[in-house]
């Protein structure tokens, strides 16, 4: 069992490996798959989050999801992705049922931040801008390794007291090439409604509570290509989710306003469970076609797709929905789009091929970074004087005093950050998305071009 010191949390049946190394302090949350605890590492004093996954082999799907998340987290090393700190190896690999995973502690989840933003001193545009930028940094890092999260939502983003954002929960993530073909064994479908996550109803009436429990992936952040069951999709589905999150963050800039999801649909067939269809329609008291309600919510805000976008869809009944329904164009009724929100319409677009490029996160950086942004975005060469721009480039060992920075040169690098008078920290592998944020380091930082072993094929 866990230690019983003052302020410690008593948890029965804690493995010896956990109780020896960590002090469980409080329960952070409980879900269908287990419980998450806040703990302190006895050796380092570091704050960590420990996830206990109950009955990990309950179903094949659960086991695969857990294995996938562990595998992905082992390969990721980015400041905006919660790191895997430790995995407790059970003493008997043939009989264990529960699994304990130790991760970086990230603080509150973003859904709580959005709900309680009025209690955060000084909350404003700079917080929204910073959180969105960090989210895009983490997303670009994942996409540089062909990794798609597939379940981005506010509750899967942690925010620390210092406003550092970290992406969590990679149980539904996939590694793919340019496009991913959904297959039977990986489809995001309901397998056991009693075991699924239960998102809060938000702006919807309480009578949709039962219906909301039928979803694995929160429908409000789900891209249209998933709703339409397109056979192929790509990383643009994560960008759609980012846009939905961005919309909620923007609403926090309107003082006194309670932020609401941008697309609060009630049903999303065929990914919704169908067994209560008739009952649901009666309870909602609306004449709606249950299987298209989420899609209709999207059309109400951004309008129906133009003909060219409709023709790009796979043939099927859902293709006819867009042809029949005619809605207005871009009616962002609840949002005040200032400078910080100018890119929202580019993210929330109907055709994933036309969505905002992920590398355009660099637009959030100011000053001299714009020259590197253009070089990376366009794949062009740019002449940079290292001596006069040491704060920008630091010291680039791979080049002469005047160097050409091209796309191929900045895709994969290492950074080495000197400590003041105490030697150097161990170099950490990073990819091109971290190149830009790392330029904010001190001028004596060292940038060395080399291969990156951090992301495996």
Question: Any overview of this molecule?
Answer:
This protein is of the alpha+beta class and 457 residues long. It has 3 domains: 16-104, Phosphorylase Kinase, domain 1; 108-361, Transferase(Phosphotransferase), domain 1; 365-449, no CATH class. Helices cover 29% and strands 16% of the residues. Strands 1-2-3-5-4 form a 5-stranded antiparallel β-sheet. It has a 4-stranded mixed β-sheet with strand order 14-18-16-17. Strands 6-8-9 form a 3-stranded antiparallel β-sheet. β8 and β9 (165-167) form a beta hairpin. InterPro entries: Kinase-like_dom_sf, LSM_dom_sf, MAP_kinase_CS, MAPK, Prot_kinase_dom, Protein_kinase_ATP_BS, Ser/Thr_kinase_AS, Sm.
Low-confidence region ranges: 183-216, 271-288, 356-369, 390-457
The geometry reads as globular
Beta percentage is 15-25%
Helix count equals: 16
> End-to-end distance, in Å?
41 Å
| Rounded average pLDDT | 66
Highest-level CATH class of the largest domain: Mainly Alpha
Could you give me the name of the CATH homologous superfamily of the largest domain?
Transferase(Phosphotransferase) domain 1
Largest sheet: 5 strands, antiparallel
| Content-based structural category | alpha+beta
**What's the arrangement of strands in the largest beta sheet?**
1-2-3-5-4
Q: What is the total number of structural domains?
A: 3
Radius of gyration computed on alpha carbons? 23 Å
Enzyme class: transferase
EC number: 2.7.11.24
Domain Sm: 369-455
Catalytic activity: L-threonyl-[protein] + ATP = O-phospho-L-threonyl-[protein] + ADP + H(+)
